[in-house]
Design brief:
Distance between the termini: 178 Å
Shape: rod-shaped
Structural class: mainly alpha
Strand content: under 5%
Length: 166
């Protein structure tokens, strides 16, 4: 430190001070304004970017809220559509069951009517066959009994007697 104090020169100090002042004056005159303008414009750019980011954040929150609202509405609409589809399905099933039951009852009634008409036709056919068979048997018996003249006369008299009594 002694060496530093011993080597001190006022002339050198004076010229260095003048150069520093001139340098500061030159800086103030030529560089201070552009540097300050650059700093101010940068500051404005940063504040504008912060405002834009804040606005973008608010817009994103609004969009998110809108999206959630739309999703909630879509879910509610989907639930309503599913509920309606279930109701329609249940109605269609119950209608189909009742229609099938009605058709089944109609088919049963038609089958009963067909069976009854077939039964009546079979009974009528059976009666016709029994009548024909009875006539054929009666014809054969009568032919056998009426082979002689005496038996024919006796039969006619018996029949006339029965006819008058009835």
């Amino acid at each position: 430190m002694d060496k530093l104090i011993n080597d001190f020169s006022f002339g050198l100090f004076f010229w260095q001070l003048i150069i520093l002042v001139v340098l500061i004056l030159l800086m103030v005159k030529f560089a201070w304004k552009p540097i300050m303008e650059a700093i101010n414009s940068r500051e404005e750019g940063i504040s504008n970017a912060l405002l834009a980011a804040e606005n973008a954040k608010k817009d994103m929150q609004n969009l998110k809220a809108d999206n959630e609202k739309l999703l909630a509405e879509a879910r509610a609409e989907r639930d309503i559509m599913i509920k309606e589809a279930r109701e329609i399905k249940e109605k269609m099933i119950s209608d189909a069951k009742s229609e099938a039951q009605v058709q089944g009852e109609k088919m049963i009634e038609q089958a009963k009517a067909t069976i009854a008409s077939e039964k009546n036709a079979a009974i009528a056919d059976l009666k016709n066959q029994v009548g024909t068979l009875s006539l054929e048997i009666a014809e054969k018996v009568l032919k056998g009994e009426l082979a002689n003249k005496e038996a024919q006369t006796k039969l006619v008299e018996t029949m006339l007697g029965d006819a008058k009594l009835n």
